[in-house]
Specification:
Layout: H1 2-20, H2 27-34, H3 37-51
Length: 52
């Protein structure tokens, strides 16, 4: 149980870090590890809307 909770927490921390460095040149490589393709498209659309 404890190790599973730790894994989930570490995954969420890494996902937050990935979002933080979204604009870096590594974005496509890193995002592939954490999110499926549809999530990336939705996130990009939200980012574009927020920029306007």
């Amino acid at each position: 149980m404890t190790s599973n909770i730790w894994k989930v927490n570490s995954f969420l921390n890494m996902a937050n870090l990935t979002i933080y460095i979204w604009s870096s040149k590594y974005e496509k490589i890193i995002f592939r590890y954490f999110f499926d393709y549809e999530d990336i498209i939705i996130f990009k659309k939200c980012r574009i809307i927020n920029k306007k």
